[in-house]
Structures are given as structure tokens and as C-alpha cells.
Amino acid sequence: MSLRSLLADIHALEQELLDFERRYGIRSETMYAAYVAGEEPEDEAWVLDFGEWASIYKLWLQRQAEYRNEVQRRQQAENSLTGLIHVAST
């Protein structure tokens, strides 16, 4: 996946995460920690939302890691931030 594609994915996922955060009034990282610890939402109507929210957050974490790895790989190959930006814009 290109840096531009990864960045576009990250931004789209962040928008979805912000929508959930605004709706429920908590940060995604807080919800995700509770979700993976097995906590159930207070309201049964929230269960589907929390499952979707957790999936989006997990994908966001994966895309962040992919982006960091690709940046690191390219910085080593180009040996500068300028080289990285040049490569990313092509």
C-alpha cells in the first residue's frame, strides 16, 4: 500500500472514530481497552456499535503501524525526510 493510500485510510478511519467518540463521549482508546477486557456496554443497543467501533479502531492501529513501517523503510532508503516527501509525492 502506498503512503498516500495509507494516509487516506488513516484519515477516513479517524473520522469514523471521531463520530463514535462524539456519540458516546469517550475516546476510542478507552473504549477499546474496555472492549478487549471483555466489558459490556451499559445499553444492549450499543453492542453492535461497540463491536464496529472496536473493529475500526483495530484497523486504525494496523494502518498506523503500516504507515510507520513504510516511512521508516523509505527514510532508510532515501536517508532524509526530503527524500521521503519526494518519494511520497510521486
Indicate the topology.
Layout: H1 3-24, H2 28-36, H3 47-78, H4 81-88
Detailed description of the structure:
The protein is mostly helical and 90 residues long. The protein has one domain (3-88). Helix content is 79%, strand content 0%. The relative contact order is 0.15. The model has no long low-confidence stretch (mean pLDDT 89).
β-strand percent reads under 5%
Number of helices: 4
Q: Which percent range fits the helix content?
A: over 70%
Helix-strand pattern: HHHH
Q: What characteristics describe this protein?
A:
90 residues; mainly alpha; 4 helices; 0% strand
Summarize the structure.
The protein is mainly alpha-helical. 79% of the residues lie in helices and 0% in strands.
